Every structure is written in structure tokens, then in C-alpha cells.
Request: fold
Amino acid sequence: MTRARAIGRVEIVRLAAMLVLVVAAPTVGDIGSCGEAPADLDAAAFFREKAAVDCARCQACGFSTAACARACDPTQQPQSFPEGCYPIVHDGEVCLRALEATSCDTYASFVADQGSTISTECNFCPPEAKP
Reply:
């Protein structure tokens, strides 16, 4: 009877340790936020940085499309987000990192003269999501 009782205690301790690990884990969204409120993404700063990334990727991949020419033109006016679209700083950071990590084959579709696409990470306000 003592052997069965000892095994039961070991199992209870293991279960308690597992519950502590699962219950004490951070909730979704807590990691990396440091308790700060989300900040709106500055459109002018974001599009300036995106143009720099686009220009660098166009040059590295050897593309010469109209989108590449616009991205590399320092006289281009900053763009703005569509009305009702309010992305946060984190959205912009994710977008720029995704663009930097994209292969040249995929990037070609982002800067194509016809039928260009947009990275899902950079599609902050898709038309179908508007209220």
C-alpha cells in the first residue's frame, strides 16, 4: 500500500508542476509589449522607409520596373493610408522585415508593371475589411 501511495504522490507533484507551467504562462499579446499602448504608424515615415527597402531590393535583384523607379526617386511625395485605415507601428515593422526577407522571385510580383501584388504582411487595410 505504501508503494501505491508513493506513486500517487509523485504523480500529483508532476501534475501540479505541469499546471503551474501552463497556468502561469503569459497571455497572448503580453510578450514583447512591455505594457505600452500601441502607437499609430506614421504614414510618411513608413512609406519613406518602404521606398528605401523597395529601392534596395530592386537594385539587388536587378529589377527595372516603374515601381522600382518610383521607389528610387528621392523626389517622390510621401503616400498616405486609405481613409479609415489606422495601422500600428508593429504592423509597419512586420511589413518591412517581411519585404527584406522575401526572395527576388516573390519580390518581382510586388514591383511588377502589370498585375503587381502586395505582401500579406503589408496589406494593412484590405478593401474587403472596410466597415
Observations:
- Helices lie at 2-23, 43-61, 66-72, 89-101, 104-110.
- The mean pLDDT is 82.
